[in-house]
Amino acid sequence: MAQDGFKRKLTAVLIADVVGYSRLMEEEDMTTVRNLREYQEVIASYILRYGGRVIDSPGDNLLSEFKSAVDAVQCAVKIQRKLSELNAQITDDRKMEYRIGINLDDVIEEGGKIYGDGVNVAARLESLAEPGGICISGVVYDQVKKKLNIEYQFVGRKSVKNIEEAVPVYRVLAFPSAASKRVTKAKVESMAFPLPEKPSIAVLPFTNMSGDPAQEYIGDGISENIISALSMGSAIFVIARNSTFTYKGRAVKVQHVAEDLGIQYVLEGSVQKSGDRLRITAQLIDALNGHHLWSERYDRKTGDLFDLQDEITKKIVVSLQVELTSGEQARVFAKSTDNLDAWCYGVKGNYLLDKFNKEDNIKARELLEAAIKLDPEHVLAYVWLGATHSVAAAYGWSESPVDSFKRAHELAQKALTLDDKSAAVHILLGTIFLAQRDHDKAITEGNRSISLAPNLSIAHAHFAATMFFSGRFQEAIALTEKAMRLSPYYPAFYLSPLARSYAFLGRYEEAIATSKQLYDRSRRGDYPEEWALIHLAGLYVAFGRQDEARHLIAEALKINPSLSLEFFKQSQPFKNTEHMKREIEALKKAGLK
């Protein structure tokens, strides 16, 4: 009934809004205004075609209403498909993507305008939609679910300002690329590993949407930083970067990721850099229940990158209902640097360090030295730079291993003065003390690194090596197995202490099988091949296969003629001289001079 010019009615409210409009105007206002006019004319034409009415279009926002929720959803689908065609004709940095929200509710009409909670909810739904996407309320979903030949995805119940009850939200899977975002439930019985008792998550590498391969490091760095931060918490199970990055550049379903890695939650996202602006999307998915916990889009300046990473990490912690101790909170949100250029050099340097060969190790060192020049307090840059020296010394890539370890120790000490709560610092110190045969200190540092980062796969792997050389073989195996569970697609070097620990415990078949895996990985460039051959040769001798062992040593010497028993002795820091003698005797029988 009309009262004082007002009347109530049930209507389907559709709100559309441009993503990143302020940035578009700031960069090129005239082109933006022309594109906006063209796109809004297209949108208005579809609204009229489906029996709707444009109520208002201030700036980049458009408010409209329909008598039917079915008409409103059909219209929104057509709009997004048409705008996708228009955007395909222009460059990525000028694309004008709309988000659309649709709600069905009672509204107040006065003078051709509409007001009320129905409009407010539609506006909230629009903000939850992805660029080029559509979100609808549960009321709309109930109206259209059996009447339109399209799919929907439940996002969750979302709070709306001044609305007492949370609103059920659904994503419409009818716009370009939406079907690939649909989540199928993962099956516990199909998982490759037992599901951890605590909340478990895999952070996939953020997709580079810039079209420039040189920008890959940004998405990789964001993913790695979030993984590293989450790994500091004891109440959450986090898959290591080495494993999640195997999905980089692959079109994979969240369900399969969860089943491959044995986890419940998956974070995926994308990043696009344009000038000094970043557009980042992120969504947290519950793979077991087949729905999104949240999905967010951020338009920020590049200088806000570190705060944004913290924001995403905090949202994950809250969503998974993870309890962090006060010490863990400090470590999770600690920053290694606030200098974006230094961060870029560090990320690139660490990537090359992981390639595990002499040439890339040298390139990594140059990048990490540049990072430290830009920010003399970049903790991780010191750690990674120290690692380039310790790795070079350990694998014979250094002219003076003694000097290399000395330099690594200096860098570790510098990092320690900057942040003694960094697990990475204690991992590096552990490897250095081990190389110096100070096994007790190496064990102390190994324990410290794991207490600081309970989910850091590489911390367990390095500690396993310490335990192996300390003669504590069962513990070395247990630590390696934990490292492998945290990183199912683990680095090849994890296999070395595992195979050799099996051998010292008399489990020769397992030792040889594991050592063969290491050799196969080395032939793909994941580990120094000559060292894989040496380890396998020693096991063959112990297993009575001396002729095969001699052949392997001959192959190793072709790769590196400078290999010798003396070098092996100097590079293998056994605590027990009898353990060293056992391996030396085996290699003598295999033909190493």
Rg computed from alpha carbons, rounded to a whole number of angstroms? 29 Å
Structural class: alpha/beta
Give the % helix: 40-55%
CATH topological fold name of the largest domain: Alpha-Beta Plaits
Shape: elongated
Kindly estimate the percentage of residues that lie in beta strands according to DSSP. 15-25%
Mean pLDDT: 89
How far the N terminus sits from the C terminus, by CA atoms, comes to 101 Å
CATH class of the largest domain: Alpha Beta
Largest sheet: 8 strands, mixed
Q: How many individual domains?
A: 4
- How many beta-strand runs? 14
The CATH architecture category of the largest domain equals: 2-Layer Sandwich
What does this structure look like?
The protein is an alpha/beta fold and 593 residues long. The protein folds into 4 domains: 7-178, Nucleotide cyclase, GGDEF domain (Alpha-Beta Plaits, 2-Layer Sandwich), CATH 3.30.70.1230; 188-332, Rossmann fold; 335-420, Serine Threonine Protein Phosphatase 5, Tetratricopeptide repeat (Alpha Horseshoe), CATH 1.25.40; 491-593, Tetratricopeptide repeat domain (Serine Threonine Protein Phosphatase 5, Tetratricopeptide repeat). 52% of the residues lie in helices and 16% in strands. It has 24 helices and 14 strands. It has helices spanning 21-27, 29-49, 69-87, 117-128, 138-144, 216-230, 241-244, 254-261, 305-319, 326-332, 340-353, 358-374, 379-394, 401-418, 423-435, 439-452, 457-469, 473-486, 495-504, 508-523, 529-542, 546-559, 565-571, 577-590, and strands at 7-18, 53-56, 61-66, 98-110, 113-115, 134-137, 151-158, 167-173, 200-203, 207-208, 237-238, 265-274, 277-286, 291-301. The strands form 2 sheets. Strands 1, 2, 3, 4, 5, 6, 7 and 8 form an 8-stranded mixed β-sheet that branches. Strands 9, 10, 11, 12, 13 and 14 form a 6-stranded mixed β-sheet that branches. Strand 2 and strand 3 form a beta hairpin. Helix 2 (29-49) runs antiparallel to helix 3 and helix 13 runs antiparallel to helix 14. It is elongated. The N and C termini lie far apart (101 Å). The mean pLDDT is 89.
